[in-house]
Amino acid sequence: MTKDYNIVITGVGGQGVLLVSDILALAALEESSENRVRTSQLKGMSQRSASVIVHLRFGPTVDSPLVTKGSVDALLSLELSEGLRYLEYLNEDSLAIINTEVNIPPVTFQGRSVEVNRSLCYGCGNCLAYCQVNYYFKGNNDFLVLNSPASSVISGKCVIQDSCTGCGQCFSACPRSAKILLEKNAYPEINQIAEILKKITKNVFMISAIDLAKDLGNPRVTNILLLGILLGTERVPLSVATVESCISKRVPTNLLDINLKAFKKGIEKGREILAENF
Ligand code: SF4
Ligand code: SF4
């Protein structure tokens, strides 16, 4: 392998994002002694079903663990809206595999938005850096890709923009606890999210992986099934045999059989995608 490879894996707490990234990182190490492997995990309030994102880079010249925006080779999202949250990492050649399962973090699922208590806010701007919203759903398939957070400081006070989804990720950054939750908000539909992503890359595949996992009798193996789909597309420079061996090393023995079945089923699905699209 001569080129460095960048993957972003995302989902919400409890979906097994970290297990998938761990298996891929181990596989990258075992695939070639020339591979340098770096990962960075952001799991925050993952135990409360909040966002989890892992950057994984491997190859002969990798230094930083962070994938820069627009440079991802593959985005694997275990949850629908999380795939959208990180669209800024995609470029026109990126592969995006998105599980259509909706598993919205509680603060957002409750349909809330945010208001700033102006008597508390003193405009420090700390919260802006924590906002990860980078699209604005205007309805009727009308979208705006943003390069700025969903709040800004105007005349010394934080002002919330319409693009705020009420995710709450900026709250912990406020030294005055000036941000509070309100009611609002609907979420985009599956086809609307696909439309947004396809404006950046045509290689977007929305897959109901959780239903495929349910067919196997255990929806909790959705993560490994998606890993199989990724490998089946042959767009990742890792062999199926190496990844399968790493699954065996990382998954508890009593769950290995069902996970290997899920991986195999995912490979089949990924090969269908390969045959039809590449
Ligand atoms: S609550 Fe709104 S402003 Fe704060 S991080 Fe989430 S989308 Fe951005
Ligand atoms: S809401 Fe809080 S963190 Fe944001 S600008 Fe105001 S005081 Fe600073």
What report would you give on this structure?
With 278 residues, the chain is α/β, with parallel strands linked by helices. It has 2 domains: 5-104 and 188-277, 3-Layer(aba) Sandwich (Pyruvate-ferredoxin Oxidoreductase, domain 3); 106-183, Alpha-Beta Plaits, CATH 3.30.70.20. The protein has helices spanning 17-31, 80-85, 106-109, 190-198, 209-215, 222-232, 240-250, 253-277, and strands at 5-12, 36-42, 51-59, 74-77, 95-99, 112-116, 135-139, 142-145, 151-154, 157-160, 179-183, 204-207. The chain has a 6-stranded mixed sheet, sandwiched between helices. The protein has a two-stranded antiparallel sheet with strand order 6-11. Helix 1 packs across helix 7 and helix 7 runs antiparallel to helix 8. It binds iron/sulfur cluster (SF4) (2 copies). One iron/sulfur cluster binds next to loops.
**Strand percent estimate:** 15-25%
User: Structural class, from secondary structure content?
Assistant: alpha/beta
| First-residue to last-residue Cα separation | 20 Å
Number of strands: 12
Task: Name the hetero compounds present.
Answer: iron/sulfur cluster
Under the CATH scheme, the architecture of the largest domain is 3-Layer(aba) Sandwich
Low-confidence stretches: none
Which H/E pattern describes the elements? EHEEEHEHEEEEEEHEHHHH
Query: What is the third-level CATH name, the topology of the largest domain?
Result: Pyruvate-ferredoxin Oxidoreductase, domain 3
Give a short summary of the structure:
With 278 residues, the protein is α/β, with parallel strands linked by helices. It is 32% helix and 23% strand. Bound molecules: iron/sulfur cluster (2 copies).
